[in-house]
Amino acid sequence: MLTTNPFAELANVSELISPTTMQIYAVLMFLLVVGGTILDIVHKKSMKYFNEYTDKAAAKATRQVSAADMTGMRVKVLTSEVLTSSEFSNQKRRMSHLLTMYGFTLFVITSAIMIFFYGDASGGKTPAIWPVLWHLGALMLCVGGYWFWFAIRVDVAAEGKKWYDIAPKADMFILSLLGTCTFALLWSFTSGAGIFFLLFLISSLFLFGGVYWSKFAHMFFKPAAAYQKKVLEANGHNQNLPYVPDLSSAEVHEKYPDIPTYMGKNPPNMGPGIRREPANHY
Amino acid sequence: MPTYVHMTRCDGCGECVDICPSDIMHIDKTIRRAYNIEPNMCWECYSCVKACPHHAIDVRGYADFTPLGSSVRVHRDEEKGVIAWRIIFRNGSKDFELLAPITTKPWGEGIPDLNTVSAPSDEMRNSQLLYNEPKYIRMDEGGLHTLESNKLTMKEGVYY
Description:
The complex is a heterodimer of chains A (282) and B (160). Chain A has 282 residues and is mainly α. Chain A has two domains: 6-234, no CATH class; 242-270, no CATH class. Helices cover 67% and strands 0% of the residues of chain A. In chain A, α8 packs antiparallel against α9. Chain B has 160 residues and is of the alpha+beta class. Chain B has three domains: 1-60, Alpha-Beta Plaits (2-Layer Sandwich), CATH 3.30.70; 67-105; 112-150, no CATH class. Chain B has a three-stranded antiparallel β-sheet. Chain B is globular. Chain B starts with a strand and ends in a 22-residue tail after the last helix. The chains are: A mainly alpha (282), B alpha+beta (160).
């Protein structure tokens, strides 16, 4: 069951859902995502304000950042913020995000491969690796997604709300995501074109069609913002924030005599203070 | 005018909600980001600004202190045990940083157990240090004020 291509099975069972229909649907979903993202970016004007801020900050920069440094920062953003979601300071959210991100990527890529290359049985038997990865992707998405829904969602974790208190517009993304992966797995395990396949279709329609209202465009905003933060830190602007120098250097001791007086010449790591406890005193 | 949150930098972690002494930093139900629900009541104590791990909160200060175009930003580094400020004048004449210690030993160490330490004596109450303090800090009527001693209970959840 884990090694059978559910899309090929579908083509066998029903003549309505031919490989071509599935491919057209997949392309349609892709277009919905592209359209929704563009509409979101245009409507929020975030790119306009982002560029304005970048220009204003560049005018106030005190240090020159070389092209090599900037390339290094782009690589760092890719390897750190994108691949390991390092921007999350809450480790549970980070773990959940990693599971959902990689699970979703795996699920979508393997779905596309199975629909476009192994859509019907006449195209040759699907290599076992694709359905296995498809199921793995859906499972990772379920684990990360349900963990988020029951425990990590801000309303639940921070505001004492119950997991079944739904805010329709805000929760559409996560609920359609959960629906997609859950019904995909149920559909695969029950095989055929039954109710679970229909529910899977509806969930995926809400998921890809609701991009305008969801957090989807964040996958472009966040790396851009992370890169901007790094560049601003390097060019002296640092978003008008101060830099914390090395506390054991003689320069700092001379400029700020309070530091060696009260903390000693080589202050130790003081550990977490207010961050010792998670923020839940609501 | 008081604190405001950059929604793009906030991740809804709730540190500001936890720390606000006025209980006016809340999480918006729809966009799941923090915001100041009652700007009139903000004391600009900068607690939320210092607590935010992403520096997503800033203060729109009153015109006599921070006129439009100037910038006062803070970074509280718990692990290094210091607080750093950066003040930028709007005419560009000053852009300087300040640094001060906020702890002399690691957090969580050296906290006295108030159950074992005795209450202030009369002599201490009448000394310069405690004379003008409110009676519950001088412990004139004995005992620490707690929720239980005042017959109050904590109610879970957020109430607007």
